[in-house]
Amino acid sequence: MLIELQPDTTQSEKNRLIDRLIKMGFELREVGDEKLTIVKGVDTLVQIREFENLPHVKRVHPIQMRYKLASRITQNEDTVISIKGVSIGGGTLFLCAGPCAIESTEQIRVCAAASRSSGATALRGGCFKPRTSPYEFQGLGEEGIVLLEDAGKEFGLITICEVMDALQVDFAADHIDILQVGARNMQNFTLLKKLGKTKNPILLKRGFSATYQELLMAAEYIMSEGNPYVILCERGIRTFETYTRNTLDLSAVPALRELTHLPIIVDPSHGTGVRSLILPMARAAVAAGADGLMIEIHPDPDLSISDAKQTINFKEFSRLSQEVMAVHRAINPIR
Amino acid sequence: MLIELQPDTTQSEKNRLIDRLIKMGFELREVGDEKLTIVKGVDTLVQIREFENLPHVKRVHPIQMRYKLASRITQNEDTVISIKGVSIGGGTLFLCAGPCAIESTEQIRVCAAASRSSGATALRGGCFKPRTSPYEFQGLGEEGIVLLEDAGKEFGLITICEVMDALQVDFAADHIDILQVGARNMQNFTLLKKLGKTKNPILLKRGFSATYQELLMAAEYIMSEGNPYVILCERGIRTFETYTRNTLDLSAVPALRELTHLPIIVDPSHGTGVRSLILPMARAAVAAGADGLMIEIHPDPDLSISDAKQTINFKEFSRLSQEVMAVHRAINPIR
Amino acid sequence: MLIELQPDTTQSEKNRLIDRLIKMGFELREVGDEKLTIVKGVDTLVQIREFENLPHVKRVHPIQMRYKLASRITQNEDTVISIKGVSIGGGTLFLCAGPCAIESTEQIRVCAAASRSSGATALRGGCFKPRTSPYEFQGLGEEGIVLLEDAGKEFGLITICEVMDALQVDFAADHIDILQVGARNMQNFTLLKKLGKTKNPILLKRGFSATYQELLMAAEYIMSEGNPYVILCERGIRTFETYTRNTLDLSAVPALRELTHLPIIVDPSHGTGVRSLILPMARAAVAAGADGLMIEIHPDPDLSISDAKQTINFKEFSRLSQEVMAVHRAINPIR
Amino acid sequence: MLIELQPDTTQSEKNRLIDRLIKMGFELREVGDEKLTIVKGVDTLVQIREFENLPHVKRVHPIQMRYKLASRITQNEDTVISIKGVSIGGGTLFLCAGPCAIESTEQIRVCAAASRSSGATALRGGCFKPRTSPYEFQGLGEEGIVLLEDAGKEFGLITICEVMDALQVDFAADHIDILQVGARNMQNFTLLKKLGKTKNPILLKRGFSATYQELLMAAEYIMSEGNPYVILCERGIRTFETYTRNTLDLSAVPALRELTHLPIIVDPSHGTGVRSLILPMARAAVAAGADGLMIEIHPDPDLSISDAKQTINFKEFSRLSQEVMAVHRAINPIR
Questions:
Q1: From the candidates B133, B206, B212, which should be mutated to test the interface with C, based on the most C CB atoms within 10 A?
Q2: Which among A116, A138, A141, C122 has most CB atoms closer than 10 A?
Q3: Under-50 pLDDT residues of chain D
Q4: Least confident stretch, A294-303, B47-56, B118-127, B182-191
């Protein structure tokens, strides 16, 4: 439920109203100067009219949606996330690159150097790998996290790493800038709540059969615990088409833009699973209005331990970077 | 089966080989100067080695794919289709617009004028409407075709109209430039064969649960009857996501580009089914490398008899046209 | 729109009302004694209240659904189709078997004999084959239809054959009992309308990405042309699972049962595409409440020209027949 | 990799071979008397031939599949799980019922009584609820687990409860018989590994966009940690059809039967999401060969806190129980 206050409400009047609502058993968030959102409490059982009779209340919106903090209705202006001088959202193009799995100091360092020189501002690298089969490489774990942190520092890049479990969060949160939730964990609610208690921005990947609404409700799990810094990531959905590993659903970008104020980036590497499609689909993602891209790179993709088929080399990444920036420039003056 | 000839084969040697193969019961097509494709005949039962023993044959490729003429293996260079000075494929951006259903002389004329002034070179308009329910408006039929033809002539636009049935083909072929096969009819093989016998270019829409391979085999039905002028159109597939009417699968553009030499265009109107998503997805389609776009426009979309939710007005189309051309210019110098 | 008449309306009063409505431009059907359905006419533009002011009208139901004749709302009792002593719907189990494609007199005769001896009452056989690639076997055509007719007569079986095109309908309607619409043609509206003008029962297969509603609207196309004898057939939908050729959606059986009075049968051969799954899924279909089954059989499935992987031999069919009848007996006393 | 031993290998010869392989760095399991499976170790990098040169080795099978312990290749006979006299798998029909969410002592007690009197041998009840929105009822937690345990003891039923997180496992494992992994957590690998270290049987639900192969690899995560007692559960997949909440994929039952020796049960409540479809689809599941069913019941479904639409009352469950047993008897003599 969204409570819109009268424009002339003073801060002390507002505070008194908030106190009263808290005593009534509700949990609240202030949304800008003139709105309050009730994020917890049995709002469906309470009459809207009772709220409208409270002092200073102009109008009450019964938010039917099962997410509120993530909704553009409660916050109209775009969220811009800033970390160490890097902005995500708000008109700039965020470019993140790195290997699917961190394999060695040398590997992550050369990836960092290549990312940096091609214009990326963030370095990704998998340390805990969610592998479909238990017999596949599971990642270097905390050792990998330290390698990633070091490479990020050396090359002046912010860092992104997936966490698969609430138990991995604290260590990763101390060493890595942005914590990623993978597609398979989009509805791992314990993990989401734990991440909601950190101060790190969270990169939340869309589950491969999740609707836009479900993605936003997963974001809401993080936000309702107190962490407003969620970056949404489209990474392909599962369909009948088998030529591509997933079907990259770029309509998610403008559709989510309507529904939420959160930044939206795209991962064309997982989203297509086909090396030759990454470049054109990266361009398309930016043209659709994405705030950024996440790209898998490797010094020698064919030798990559995981996801070799969807990883590009440094030269290909350099070209990708140039082309997506050209598209970004082309559409930005006219947006 | 693809027969590669020795580079020094003379035309008369080639002709003698062709005669011999025809006498053996095969149907052939010449592919460039140095290749022959056997398009009909029991090729799986015949030993490849027997073909390799024929004179002037350099190598024989057993094409496993169930399409041949549409394949990039048999023709490497892109097909460019030219009609009345308008090119489809080959680097230019083809822009086609018009109403979902033709309603009146006035309606199609104002749409034609708006299309023309915004840079479109083709006018589309539905005359035979494939409607899910028998109680919905079924189109103006042949009367609509004449209206479309007249509007095309008046405003210097080539024309596109869907045909739903083999019986509608002859009349439409006489009056309209490009005949369209709708998504529901992608595997209406009688219709495809009939269209294969016309000389008009055919716009073939992907069925909403058709794979890339199936789309190419449908094109092959047309091509194997003698009509090489097929334009493929991605228009969204059916998935679990309900926010959009269909999921526009833009990966189809670069993926089909690898598999076929045929031009590939995109219909973001049907592909999203949501008015506000048409502009960003049109930009994305061009950025993904599409050869053209097909857009539903209407003087007053809310009054449109069909597909109101996915139709934009003339002003929106004008903006779309400018933005997609900017994206096209941005990616073309570097492709 | 459904018009409910007052219970004491006489036949002549009813006739006068019908005349009046026809003069107003509507096309009608009588539904039982006390209901009229307006099947054609711009009912959304007409005020319901105007209809309620007509004499003898008790109530007017604005049928939101885009199908009417197929709906259980307009006809509550199950439709039972009877052809030459064979019933489809209404509590008996209809069993139809035969080869995917008719190959020869001998082949269809042995299939007919095996079908008969295992308890099937209908013989199916493909004559016009809708093949994804133009280079695959396209069927024996009208010659096959005559072979099927002869085999049906010799062995006392009613016959079923797919027609792919309106042009094939007249010949097939003269020689075959039940005409089948394949999944690819479920929305070939010209074909559906043509079949609506025949007197043969129509077996309508669900398109592989069609919803229940769309299947019923396709049935409505046939019924609104005057042919009430439509049999619906679930044959699997397209999903991400690749182990099976399609995902057999057996929930369609009880779900359609709620929505329509038409008989519903299941094709586990196409529905699974895997030989070993046909028997258990045939049992499951009957347990779900299906009115019948359609099974592909062949004297030597591995030599079958088409669909070898989903065809069972005569011994397997005999076992299937026994098992599904046992299931049918088990659930029938308690339904 | 599966190592087949020579038939005359003695136990001491076998032990020596095992020791040698362990020293080479592999982790092994014995499969029956004559087979060894290497479950951990870099088997793809090792030459099969080297293994074949080891003493007593008859043949080496490079298992391409990414699951081994779950595969019918390594264990041909069906796994039968026995808990407190209740068998799951092996020809009997396992029937489990209970409320979606435990709400109170009284509610779970009346559900237990109804389950018992209708022939169920297991009681399910949600304590930790994975809710899509953070604002929905999240379950009674450990308090609910104790209520479930008590009700199970009082009515002589084994108990099943979902755990959502590795942290919930220890407590639940002490109080509940079978621990359930929900569809959203099918690839929560940390949870799976933790469950692999318990001694409780695990009910593993298929993710709503997981393939059969992925379900088996998830089972393998549990089994490779040492817990062989995994029960697979089909509960519907996500497709384009919206009439049902999910599409219950009953082909999974016979398909998984071919691929694995593990018991397979079906949840038609979540699988359809529609109350009226639960009975026919329960019958269909048993007819397809399922080893058991899991059904949501509630004293007054419309008052159920969660999943009201897919919950049946006690009388409906009693009828369901009778009908599925009739189907089970009908197909069992002939299987």
A1: B133
A2: C122
A3: 42-46, 334-335
A4: B47-56
pLDDT of residue D332: 87
Q: Which chain C residues are Cβ-neighbours of B189 within 8 angstroms?
A: 130-131, 134, 164
Question: Residue written as tokens 């009730």?
Answer: A38
Per-residue pLDDT tens over the stretch D198-215 = 999 999 999 999 999 999
Return the sign of the alpha-carbon dihedral for residues D1, D6, D7, D13: negative
The pLDDT confidence band at residue B320, using thresholds 50, 70 and 90, is very high
pLDDT(A334) > 50:
no
| Closest residue by Cα to residue C86 from C119, C130, C55 | C119
Has residue B334 got a pLDDT over 50? no
Extract the tokens encoding B178. Answer: 């490009």
C-alpha gyration radius of chain D: 21
Amino acid symbol at B186: M
Q: Residue B285 and residue A284: Cβ atoms within 8 Å?
A: yes
Q: What is the pLDDT of residues C59-85, one digit of tens each?
A: 766 555 678 899 998 899 999 999 999
| D101: closest CA of chain A, how far (Å) | 17
Three-state secondary-structure class, residue C97: strand
Does C165 contact B at CB distance below 8 Å? yes
**Angle formed at CA A179 by CA A175 and CA A184, multiple of 5 degrees:** 140
Q: Is the pLDDT of residue B50 over 70?
A: no
8 A C-beta contact, residue A103 and residue A60: no
Longest dimension (CA), chain C: 67
> What pLDDT score does C259 carry?
94
User: Residue with structure tokens 């006419």?
Assistant: C41
H or E segment to which residue D130 belongs: none
**pLDDT tens, C159-176?**
999 999 888 999 999 999
Q: Choose the closest CB to C277 out of D255, D277, D319.
A: D255
| pLDDT the model gives residue D26 | 74
d(CA A248, CA B247): 9
Q: What residue type is D137 in one-letter code?
A: F
**How buried is C302 (Cβ within 10 angstroms: 0-12 exposed, 13-18 middle, 19+ buried)?**
exposed
- In chain D, % helix, strand, coil (3-state, to 5) comes to 40, 20, 40
A153 CB-near residues (< 8 Å, 6+ apart) = none
* Helix residue ranges per DSSP H, chain D: 11-23, 48-52, 105-117, 142-155, 166-175, 189-196, 212-223, 252-259, 268-272, 275-287, 314-331
Outline where DSSP puts E strands in A249-314.
264-266, 292-296
Task: Between A29 and C186, name the one with better pLDDT.
Answer: C186
D300, β-bridge pairs:
none
Enclosing H/E stretch for C87 = strand C86-88
Determine contact, residues A206/A215, Cβ cutoff 8 Å.
yes
> What does the block give as tokens for D286?
């048993």
Chain C: give the shortest CA distance to residue A333, in Å. 40
User: Do D164 and A189 make contact, defined as CB atoms within 8 angstroms?
Assistant: yes
Residue that the structure tokens 């779309």 belong to: B320
Q: Is the pLDDT confidence value at C319 over 50? A: yes
Task: Please tell me which residue of chain D has the smallest CA distance to B237.
Answer: D240
Best residue in D235, D244, D248, D250 to probe C by mutation, most C CBs within 10 Å?
Answer: D250
- Dist. CA A116–CA A107, nearest whole Å: 14
- Taking phi first (over 0 means left), then psi (-120 to 50 degrees means alpha), and beta for anything else, what does residue D98 get? left
The two tokens of residue D317 are 């469950």
**A-proximal residues of C, 237-266, CB under 8 Å:** 238-240, 242
Instruction: Give the pLDDT band (50/70/90) at residue A43.
Output: very low
For chain C, the straight-line distance linking the first and the last C-alpha, in angstroms and rounded, comes to 33
The token pair that represents C135 in the structure block: 């280079």
The SS3 call for residue C280 is helix
Asked if D187 lies within 8 A of A184 by C-beta distance, the reply is yes
